[in-house]
Design brief:
Elements (H helix, E strand, L loop, with lengths): L3 H8 L1 H18 L5 E6 L2 E5 L5 H18 L10
Antiparallel strand pairs: 1-2
Helix pairs in contact: 1-2, 2-3
Length: 81
């Protein structure tokens, strides 16, 4: 999550932690057979997926990013890279 430190500094760590939990929930709901996600630490997550090609992985990430944005109710753009 890009610039998550700014999010925490602006809104506080309690909202930051709740936001990370919501993101983890969306990731968990978005995984299908053979896919996993992991929180690597702090504001870093990884998705491991046996996608057939790079385009299908990019599309999956776009869908996940859309779901995350839809689930959050904050006036701050969450950017995933």
């Amino acid at each position: 999550i890009d610039n998550f430190k700014v999010f925490n500094d602006t809104f506080g760590y309690e909202l930051g932690d709740r936001t990370l939990c919501k993101i983890a929930g969306v990731l968990n709901e978005s995984m299908t057979g053979g896919e996993i996600y992991a929180r690597l630490g702090s504001d870093n997550f990884a998705v491991f997926s046996p996608c057939e090609n790079a385009d299908s992985m990019v599309e999956k990430c776009k869908v996940i990013q859309y779901k995350i944005r839809k689930s959050l109710h904050v006036r701050f753009e969450i950017v995933l890279s």
